[in-house]
Amino acid sequence: MVELVLSGPGKNALGTALMETILAHLEAAGGEPILLTGQGDAFSAGLDLKEVARLERAEMERFLGTLERLVATLYGYPGPVVACVNGHAIAGGCVLALCADHRVAIDDPTVRIGLNEVAIGLEFPPQVLAVVRARVPPRSIERVVLEAGLHPPRTALALGLVDEVDADAIALARERLTQRAAHPRSAYGATKRTLRAGTLGLSAVEQQRFRDEIVPAWCAPAVKERVRAVLRPRR
Predict the structure, then answer these.
(1) How far is CA 170 from CA 3, 15, 109, 212, 213, in A?
(2) DSSP assignment letter at 160
(3) Per-residue confidence band for 232, with pLDDT thresholds at 50, 70 and 90
(4) 52 domain-assigned
(5) Is residue 13 part of a domain?
(6) Number of structural domains the chain divides into
(7) What is the domain-level CATH number for residue 137?
(8) I need a labelling partner for 67 at 20 to 30 A (CA). Which of 1, 91, 95, 98 fits?
(9) What confidence tens digit (pLDDT) does each residue in 158-174 have?
(10) Spatial CB neighbours of 19, under 8 Å, sequence gap ≥ 6
(11) pLDDT (tens digit, 9 = 90+) per residue, 16-72?
């Protein structure tokens, strides 16, 4: 079992450096079972908005490309992945949890879990949205994405953002990972690959739209101002 801990400033915010570190750890894990959790009292507060606020178009395209590569790599990881959502899992942090095969959240009503991108004015990159559509139940997908709310764990459970809630989330997450790790590795990996085949395949039109519309939208002055507004209360 490999314990992969999201660790960085801003409640484990996903900046370029942290995303590249996670990618390196996933490659090094070599298909071994992974327990994904966050350092301290947060899973991940989402993308590093301080970095997002200062990026221009070419840099933004690289940043979002790194995010998409991380999501695709984690979602497609051949071995079992269980996420212990030990604290806030917001926006990109929630997306990483959704990439896991199973998600156990801490039973703490002060914790918030959800996808608030639309509330900030950010359009989902196409592969990120594809994972969200595949992992959030149809009954709640529009509420989760368009309402863009942040929910306590038991509401997140009802919405399908997590699979279980427990006071000792780390112990239960390890138990669930051990159960999955007991299956023959080749069968688990092949079946997971078949189940998820085609989810992240983008058409040429979608790829072009990402470059021509979504990346520039993330750089728009009005969007940057909303991002800065989110950051101001944290100072």
Answers:
(1) 11, 25, 17, 42, 40
(2) T
(3) confident
(4) yes
(5) yes
(6) 1
(7) 3.90.226.10
(8) 1
(9) 999 999 999 999 999 99
(10) 66, 67, 70
(11) 999 999 999 999 999 999 999 999 999 999 999 999 999 999 999 999 999 999 999
